[in-house]
Protein: Isopentenyl-diphosphate delta-isomerase
Organism: Tepidanaerobacter syntrophicus
Amino acid sequence: MDIMDEHKRKQRKDEHIKYGMLLEKKLKRNAFDDITILHNCLSEVDMESIDISTKLQSINLENPIIINAITGGTSQGKIINGKLAGIAKKLKVAMAVGSQKIALNNKDAVDSFKIVRKINPDGVVFANLSADSSVEEAKSAIEMIKADAIQLHLNVPQEVVMKEGQKKFTGLIDNIANLVQNIDIPIIVKEVGFGIAKEEALILAESGVKIIDVSGKGGTNFIEIEGRRGKSQASYHLRNWGIPTPISLIETIDATQDKVDVISSGGLKNGVDAAKSLALGAKAVGFAGYFLHILLSKGSLALEKYIIEIQKEIKYVMAMSGARNLEELKQRPVIINGKTYHWLKYRGIKT
């Protein structure tokens, strides 16, 4: 790769962090406000016996929280990944690295990803590449960090708006199916903040995908980020593009039923959002932008405390709804209101 292209790629990664943190402060409405878990006044749950462990296919998780894909490839990315890996190890939460494409082309960037496995040798770690990557690239990314699974991210809106982004997406579905057939660890197909509709969720399931991360609208907005980088007017008009996370979660679960394990991410802020996702049927919940905001503004200890608080809040909701484990939480009635209700009704999904 040309040295100048490599420099621009590193610069872009650091700019994603910079503008992502600026936009994080603007986020207002929480789409999870439309979701209510029914209170159980006769709960007989013993708080000390609540079990929040879960499973993503063959991967056992002690709790459902995932530090989702954030960064890597730069000196700043290495520092961030190191701090996140330390927290993941201490709290026994899964962690995904950011896109490793830069490290496949530049050996100097490899350590910014390897540090995660170095600090957390026995933890659950996910590799990350674009869904248009080759089998060889995927295997290299997996080997780089001894990954337990690999995220294949879908980012058409980001690429379209990005001045230097990709503009051709032909063959993506076939490529995903080929990767599923030739990679021997779980594959997670993941959006990057714009959600997955039931039609595409079904296509992914029929292609052999067993884990889907909906990563819906409500969190980090890469259209706005790329718009700020490139000073694009179009990005302003497109800033509301996407499917809100709870809607995408419900659509995906409705389409795939028990064929796919679904991860809820995109704008989750706290344990109540997480519990609502789990009650709707998610097997795990991912946090990225908000965790990074806490890490960079308040430090590692603050983020560590916040994740512990999320775990507590999930358990509080379970106790108040009468659920001893996540499977029982999923059986508790959920009331859906507002925009989410009307969207699902229009889409023919029973609420």
